[in-house]
């Protein structure tokens, strides 16, 4: 969808996703403190789980409208999740000499992110099959 309508759908979805990400940052930092990059891991795992469930739903129920797919995936989840913050936080941990924590951050994002997509799809298949 390359029309202005498609751009607006993504724009509004990304705004909503970005606002949800900011809320997650605030809540996580208040609960756990600012020293660990937990909020980025949380949004990336939740985003991966959500994308897996959405992809599974569309695979089982048909693709639905392209507008809905754009709004949910590219829009909301694109605005909610972030790979760049993960990279920056990992580099900051390395810069600060916290090599083990940096390696753990990489492993957690990889394992939990891929696992969440798999679980999301499996749940979608169980719910909508």
Could you describe the 3D structure shown?
- By secondary structure, this protein is mainly α.
- The protein has one domain.
- It contains five helices and no strands.
- It has helices at about 5-30, 40-60, 65-80, 85-95, 100-129.
- The relative contact order is 0.19.
- The mean pLDDT is about 90.
Task: Quickly describe the structure.
The chain is an all-alpha fold and 129 residues long. The chain has helices spanning 4-32, 38-61, 66-80, 83-95, 99-128. Helix content is 86%, strand content 0%.
Global Rg: 16 Å
Shape: globular
Instruction: Let me know the number of strands.
Output: 0
- Give the tally of structural domains: 1
The assembly state of the depicted protein chains is: single chain
Helix and strand pattern: HHHHH
The low-pLDDT segments are: none
Report how far the terminal alpha carbons are from each other.
28 Å
Task: Quickly list its features.
globular, mainly alpha, about 130 residues, 5 helices
Task: Please write out the topology.
Blueprint: H1 4-32, H2 38-61, H3 66-80, H4 83-95, H5 99-128
């Amino acid at each position: 969808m390359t029309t202005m309508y498609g751009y607006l759908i993504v724009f509004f979805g990304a705004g909503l996703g970005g606002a949800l990400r900011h809320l997650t940052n605030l809540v996580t930092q208040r609960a756990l403190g600012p020293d660990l990059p937990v909020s980025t891991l949380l949004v990336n795992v939740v985003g991966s789980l959500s994308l897996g469930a959405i992809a599974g739903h569309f695979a089982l129920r048909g693709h639905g409208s392209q507008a809905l797919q754009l709004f949910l995936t590219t829009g909301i989840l694109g605005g909610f999740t972030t790979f760049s913050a993960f990279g920056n936080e990992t580099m900051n941990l390395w810069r600060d000499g916290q090599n083990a924590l940096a390696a753990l951050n990489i492993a957690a994002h990889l394992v939990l992110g891929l696992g969440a997509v798999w679980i999301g799809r499996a749940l979608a298949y169980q719910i909508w099959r």
